[in-house]
Amino acid sequence: MHAGLIPIVSYEASVDVHDDFGVILKESSVEEIKNSLRMIASLSPLELKIMARKAWEFVRANHTREKFTESYRNTVEKILTNQGKKDKHGRTWETDKFFVT
């Protein structure tokens, strides 16, 4: 998508896609993939250009190394901050698991 590709992905791919710049497959069946490809292929060059641009703009705004670094840092800081604290169910956060206390 950083190169302006129009994504056609399954839900399980866990890729952020909006209807105006890509397709999320519901079943991932061969027939659904064919239909999605045909739909994209039937678009005008201008529509394809707009979709590609929107995909590119979305990833440039949301999926950069800087955004990944920020998200990763926030996750690690949250883990470190919550280490040893109990959640609302009385479980204690320890490294990678909740232990019932």
| Average pLDDT level | 85
Structural class: alpha+beta
Spatial strand arrangement across the major sheet: 1-2
**Which sequence of SSEs, written as H and E, runs from N to C?**
EEHHHEE
Number of helices: 3
- Determine the strand fraction and express it as a percent band: 5-15%
Query: How many domain units?
Result: 2
Low-confidence stretches: none
Secondary structure: number of strands = 4
> Which range best describes the helical content: under 10%, 10-25%, 25-40%, 40-55%, 55-70% or over 70%?
40-55%
- The radius of gyration over CA amounts to 20 Å
Mass-distribution shape:
elongated
Query: How many strands, which pairing sense, and closed or not: the largest β-sheet?
Result: 2 strands, parallel
Question: Explain this structure to me?
Answer:
The chain has 101 residues and is α+β, with helices and mostly antiparallel strands. It has two domains: 1-63, no CATH class; 65-101. The protein is 48% helix and 14% strand. It is built from three helices and four strands, in the order ββαααββ.
Give the SSE layout.
Blueprint: E1 8-10, E2 23-25, H1 30-41, H2 45-62, H3 65-82, E3 91-94, E4 97-100
Parallel strand pairs: 1-2
Antiparallel strand pairs: 3-4
Quick overview:
This protein is an alpha+beta fold and 101 residues long. The protein has three helices and four strands; from the N terminus they run ββαααββ.
